[in-house]
Amino acid sequence: MNKISTTEQVQRSLKKRYRAEKRFRMYGVTSIVIGLLALLLLFTEIISKGVGAFKQHYVSLEINFDADDLGLDADLFTFFDAVREDYGNKLHSELKIADQHATMAEALSEFEAQAQRDFGMTVIDALQAREQQLADANFTGIIRNSLRERFPSVKSRRDRRALYSLVSVGASFDLRDRVNADASLIGTTQKLWLLADDDLDTYVKSLNDSEPFIGRLKENQVEFISSWLEKNEIDARFNTIFFTSGDSSEPEQAGILGAVMGTFFTLLVTLILSFPVGVAAAIYLEEYATKNKFTDFIEVNINNLAAVPSVIFGLLGLAIFLNFFGMTRSVPLVGGMVLTLMTLPTIIISSRAAITSVPPSIREAALGMGASRMQTILHHVLPLAMPGMLTGAIIGMARALGETAPLLMIGMVAFIAEVPSSWNDAATVLPVQIYLWADSPERAFVERTSAAIMVLLAFLIMMNGLAIYLRKRLERRW
Amino acid sequence: MSSTLLLALMFVGFITIYKLGRSRSLALATNVGGARYLNSLPFYYGMITVLWAAIPALILLGLWYAFDDAVIQAIVVQHLPAEIREAGNTEIGLVLNKVRLIIDNQFLGEPPEYMTVAAAEINKLTTLSSNLLAALIFLLMSVSASVGYFRIHPQMKARLFVENWFKLALLICSMIAIFTTLGIVLSVLLESIKFFRSVPITEFLFGLEWSPQNAMRADQVVGSSSFGAIPLFAGTLLIAFISMLIAVPVGLMSAIYLADYAPTKVRSTVKPLLEILAGIPTVVYGFFAALTVAPMIRDLAIGMGLDNYMTVTSESALAVGLIMGVMIVPFVSSLSDDVINAVPQSLRDGALALGATKSEVVKQVVIPAALPGIVGGFLLAVSRAIGETMIVVMAAGLAANLTANPLDAVTTVTVQIVTLLTGDQEFDSPKTLAAFALGLMLFVVTLALNYIALHVVKKYREQYE
């Protein structure tokens, strides 16, 4: 048995060791590829699913605004338009307030005679009668008339119902708004583009796929759609409804404006509460606090809160804000307060980092010139630390923007169709809207969910971009 | 007067008072030979008057808002018909809810006479209350501000006074963290104690069956077996385990690669890209898991014929764990990056000089040296996986199965908290209280994990400093 030298031993094992080296390197590359692939897959999936929601299909129909079919008195409407021209656009809303009627009647005295002559009632009564007629008018009826004329061969009740369901129920509100705006429409026949139902919309969008999505459509409905398509009576337009209306149970009428406004008010409350408090806490801990048990206790609390699961903050909001203090459910004010407690640790930690980065020489110079502690902080430390604090605040807000779980606990998950106008109105926020839509079975909601996610991600990217820009632009190196 | 208007007017009032106090100090200064003979700068005299005016007014405002609804409600209840008042608190609560609907114009049908009267009374009292509040506030503000105004004299130590209040305000702000923790502990603890009165704590911790729906009806006796949380803990751990299987190797290896192998250019592009994963809201991951990954895994499993041997569902723990793992990758990776970079370069250089290859240095020197930090990061990641809510709510199941099959549906603690609390139910039912007991468990476990993790990381950092 001949002894091998160390050099030989090493050289023999080298091959194996280099292989191990290569393998190890491969593991690293694979890990990164997995991460990047997940990111890529997520984005392509969301974008490919969501991009369709920015287009919405409309159907062209010959609508006959027949006064009898609608149950409208055309003269009353012409009269209203004349009054409106004189009185201004407030007319419609002021009619609803009974207290206003006396002053209105005075202002409209010149129309009094005409109202008495033509309609046999006071001007206010005439205008109110018109409001009532508009509310009762059968716009669905004239859409159905037009559909029947377009497809005269459809006779059975079942087929007709199938045909009617291809136009959105929202189309009749559109017609109502048109008539409300312009009385001269009554009695005319117009070629109008009406909002299509989500089933039609989804089907037409999927026509280019190898196997179009039939979903809930019946065979005869597909025939109606092909007939429209042949004559170019179906058109895709930019989906403004998605950006200008609140939630709805009908996908084609559902929009994100309500959720966006809810998010805005919630984040506004969060920012107003968390930024000053967070900065104040950071100043205390960095500039005033002496190192003792109490300060340590505060710091332990802050660090722990930063790692508490967000759903726990929801429990806190439910038990303390809603049940103990009896605040209103579902409002952005409470949502903002819960998110404030959640983001405070982030803001305190980043603000402290910003304060420590201000060199002590600045403080010493200020103190040396005779400034007091408070003056040193307010006049020198704070302005210099502000960019870092703002960056931290924006990042904290971005976290709050994506947060869903605590808001579910305090009831911001209700179905709310109205767009909130203050932080005391029931509202929902964008991530919760995504959660709600993701649960809906309609296929049209899938693309709207993805589109809402795209909007949310766009906001997040904007906020993070702003934070990076601020950091690069304003941060000073000492 | 609306509260926004009141606050705006108060703000205007404070500015005026500041100006008055400031000019008063300047006026007094002329008698003693000019502003430089004042004890403090004029700014502080202005601020001291504002503090005099603001503190009592703000205290009154807070107390008023805390109690006005309760007082109005008590008055209205006094005026309700006798038979309703005697029918007990539940009945009164129902009537008050209906009255609120009338006020919001959402009452359907014709309300009874006494409700309309009550609604009108509430409206009247609310207006009265807000007007009275505004009047009282401004009275109080002017009285206390004039007291402050006339106390100003040139020798007054205004700066000291203002700065002490400033410091006190800062202290209160920094104590909010303590109050929050206290609030969390109190809210989950008190409700949990109520819950454990109806369900024994041992049943909750060791029971094998979880079906809170059974306890929904009031006439039904709460079956002790329906609140056994073991299946939830098992489900949570299963999902956390799967996510760790993804997150730890991928996160750790990418951190090592980026720290020790990758050229600077790759590092500076890949790192922010991976960090995007951390910034994506969890609701997006939930949507992705439920809609794309879960059906994909189910189809794959059925395609492989696995459904002959085990349950395969479209709410599989595997899909949830996978996506949660991807979410946690950047978290693990940035924590590991920190600790790997904290290992002194001299240790690496020493090993390289002895002829070790790069991977041997990493495996035999860097990782053992950084191990406490990596373990700490691992614990933090576990705590995140346990506390993660939206992914599991959207993609995991609701039924509490006690299973180790990753293709089956399991439920987690957070899913149950959300489902128990998002319905409309009485706040004091065992079903709602169970959510708080689960919240307590979650809080205690994550707190313990975080505490240990932070402790480990801190100890480790000190070692090389």
Structural key phrases:
heterodimer, A: 478 residues, mainly alpha, MetI-like fold, 3-stranded antiparallel β-sheet, 68% helix, flat, B: 465 residues, 77% helix, 0% strand
What would your notes on this structure say?
The complex is a heterodimer of chains A (478) and B (465). By secondary structure, chain A is mainly α. Chain A has 22 helices and three strands. Chain A folds into three domains: 49 residues; 190 residues, no CATH class; 218 residues, MetI-like (MetI-like fold, Orthogonal Bundle). Chain A has a three-stranded antiparallel sheet with strand order 2-1-3. Chain A is flat, with a radius of gyration of 32 Å. Chain B is flat and about 85 Å long. Chain B folds into two domains: 165 residues, no CATH class; 241 residues, MetI-like fold. The longest helix of chain B is centred in the first third of the chain and has 39 residues.
